[in-house]
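Long-time lurker, first post.

We've been arguing in lab meeting about whether 2-acetamido-2-deoxy-beta-D-glucopyranose would sit comfortably in this protein at all. Half the group thinks yes, half thinks no, and nobody has a model to point at. So I'm putting the question to the forum: if I give you the sequence and the SMILES, can you give me back a predicted structure of the complex? Inputs are below. Any interpretation is welcome too.
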Amino acid sequence: MKGFLLTSILTAVSVLACSPGPVRQEWRQLSSGQQQAYLNAINQLNQRQDDTSNDSTDPATWSFAHFAIVHARYQQANHNQGSVQAPPFFAWHRIFLHYYEKALQSIDSSVVLPYWDWTQDSQNPLSSDVYAQLGGNGQGASGCMETNPLNGWSSAVNGGCLKRCSGAGQTLYPAGAVVSLMNGSPNYAALNRQIQDGPHGAVHNVIGGRCADGGVGDMYTMSSAGDPIFYMHHAMVDKIWMMWQDACPSKFANDYSAAVNSVMAPFTQTAQDVLNFKASDGNFCYGYSSSGINSVQLNKCAGAPGTPTQSGDSAAPSATAPADSVDQYFAELRLLDLIPNSADILKALFPGFSNSNINTISHFMHSPASKAKAKRDYLSYGNFTSVPDVIPTYQLNPGYKIKAPCQNDTTDLYNLRHPTPLDKDYIKMMNVDEKSARHVEYLAKLAVDDMNNMEGYVPYSALINFNAHNKLGLFKPKQSN
Ligand SMILES: *[C@@H]1O[C@H](CO)[C@@H](O)[C@H](O)[C@H]1NC(C)=O
Ligand SMILES: *[C@@H]1O[C@H](CO)[C@@H](O)[C@H](O)[C@H]1NC(C)=O
Ligand SMILES: *[C@@H]1O[C@H](CO)[C@@H](O)[C@H](O)[C@H]1NC(C)=O
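Top reply:
Settle the argument with this. Predicted structure of the protein with 2-acetamido-2-deoxy-beta-D-glucopyranose, as tokens:
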């Protein structure tokens, strides 16, 4: 049983048309040797020197500083600016990450870019092992990085030290909220707007943060690619795009909202080259491992994105979820089955838990009757095509009992917190369209409320799972044999 679950969950990958290719793993799925190899490679890339003014050189030969500078130099074309959509966002960053990976491979050919599934840590990101192993928070009023592996790194774009002033008690988007936004995106333009201005921006806003001396962390600015955590964050963003493309390839694999043959300077590729990975450059052939976000079912073509449209509703759940989806929906519980010593953890967390019901964890945590309610999570609130003129004022649905706990309350292990809204300063600095960002935040709150109000449902992103797979350091895939 467990062997079957192992193969079905941990080797499940998201790949588009080509295969086989390297599989990018979540940081916690790497062995400690692989983690060390990655950290060594970024350290060497940081010591490399090249002509950062010449973007015509082979990007695989660039220095770390050159990547940071290029990201800032081309930012206007590749990020949403106010109400102006920048369609290249996903595609340009896919190319950028590809060359960053190539540059690392020129140092150590065994390295494959890892990603950070921050949905797993969304409820308490500063306690994440991933964050800690990538250097944790900056020191003092100015937030300079003084811990390894980033001790003494400088900021090529902003000058001075590399900074993080990550805010305590802040939260990111949980898996269910991200998937709800994906389900509500009927085309590339919608996905671009919702993911870029919502969950993507939240990671920059929270991890960069505002420093006591009035400055901000690099992730908060267009100097963000000077912080190595940027690349693992954007690999997650790329995975989200790929998951969405894979959810309905006939509609989404080639969907794009601008001229698909425009070259993505300073690179030579076009969006077309990286959309479905079978086009001209065979190097763009890779996949992503399954991680926490995969525990929430993404609508397939049958229940196409946007099918249920509701806002702040108490209406009946949609009946469009495919028949087997409820079981897939509960894949997260099976992940718990994979954790060594899970019985001990569960006994500590749930008084009354005994060895005799170790094989029925899902029954222990979820009565079968609650599964019907869990279907609610298939709802997407957007069917997003444009930002409404007036963003509705958020209020808890009167039919709901459970309010999201405060962001800084880490005692509630089960209920999800609303994601921390983007700072006004971040919005201004990044020239984000505030209305668009607030709209996404509103939709995310509705999705979080829904999850919290499913009777007996414990979301994958809940702190109880966080404790199991992160804090206790036990979330390691077993080697298949
Ligand atoms: C920039 O790099 C390209 C490719 O290596 C080279 O042909 C060109 O001469 C360089 N330009 C400058 C100004 O150094
Ligand atoms: C979602 O939006 C699209 C585009 O405007 C529209 O064609 C479709 O009917 C909408 N779906 C629902 C369920 O409202
Ligand atoms: C926790 O959050 C609440 C409201 O969200 C705030 O009033 C309180 O001061 C916060 N406590 C700490 C220690 O930050």
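For your lab meeting: The chain has one domain: 4-468. The longest strand covers residues 13-15. Whichever side wins, do check it experimentally.
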